[in-house]
Amino acid sequence: MQRTDFAAMTCPIARGLDRVGAWWSILILRDAFAGLTKFDEFQKSLGIAPGMLTRRLDDLVAAGLLERRVYCARPRRASYHLTAPGRDFRPVLIALMAWGNRHFAPEGPSVAIVEAATGIPAEPMLIDRRTGRPLAAPDYALAPGPGATPASRARLARGTTLLDAVAA
Amino acid sequence: MQRTDFAAMTCPIARGLDRVGAWWSILILRDAFAGLTKFDEFQKSLGIAPGMLTRRLDDLVAAGLLERRVYCARPRRASYHLTAPGRDFRPVLIALMAWGNRHFAPEGPSVAIVEAATGIPAEPMLIDRRTGRPLAAPDYALAPGPGATPASRARLARGTTLLDAVAA
């Protein structure tokens, strides 16, 4: 039921969420970036029930985020590989990692992005690739696109603080 | 059950996901950035069952991402406002929005981030605030932090493609 509701929304955030389906799916994508490809590897890493893992992998394949490759016919064995849209989920994972480290790692991060040469932790920040400027108001704004519905236009008309500059 | 599993993980992505709890919670945070504060406003925007909305708002308050302010004692009425950690979820939402627009908006984006002066759509990209350089290998790497467990060290030792440079 919930998935249907989300699919009907035009909001790109809702649609993106619909494609990754559930928390497990995001952690499966995380592990795919770590090089895991086989069912047993995902299961060991996640401690997930086999039936649940099967469903999540099927969903990710159906959503076009993982590609299934059969590497052994008998017994049937498949591996799972990130597609281009799956690899493009990278900035979401990086942003989640940075947020989790900033707020929910009281004992210190378990893993962090660091500058390779110095080991200094990175401070992820979003910019516009074309201009190099931070994605922050008033330089940047949310605007309706060709797919905007009356509902999304109404939401936009209320304004947003999504692009308000973050305190340093 | 699932929430308990996630909370026990040290991975910052898993912990971050645990704090936002469910898809609905992410859309509630989205709407909070759009200026919504009242129960009825969230309900109308999301088309969510009242009981579910109550639970999700309670969870977000308990997780420290929303603050509840009682503005009327009788009848009891409360409004909900982003906390500092809640506002800091911004980059995750922006990254999700960009991903949803790139891959799941065949009719064109319903909403997009644009440069205010020109209307040109932004291309969000993550950089290191300190150096201004893209968060990409080989300049940047994942490294274990003080909170790393043997499991997280083992995962890191396998390498990652999370920071592999994206094709332009």
Task: Describe the structure in your own words.
Two copies of one chain form a homodimer. By secondary structure, chain A is an alpha+beta fold. Chain A has a domain at about 1-85: Arc Repressor Mutant, subunit A (Orthogonal Bundle), CATH 1.10.10.10. Chain A contains eight helices and five strands. In chain A, strands 1-2 form a two-stranded antiparallel sheet. In chain A, helix 1 runs antiparallel to helix 2 (about 10-20). Chain A starts with a helix and ends in an 11-residue tail after the last helix. The mean pLDDT of chain A is about 85. Chains A and B meet through helix 1, helix 2, helix 3, helix 7 and strand 3 of A and helix 1, helix 2, helix 3, helix 7 and strand 3 of B.
Which short descriptors sum up this protein?
homodimer; alpha+beta; Arc Repressor Mutant, subunit A; two-stranded antiparallel ribbon
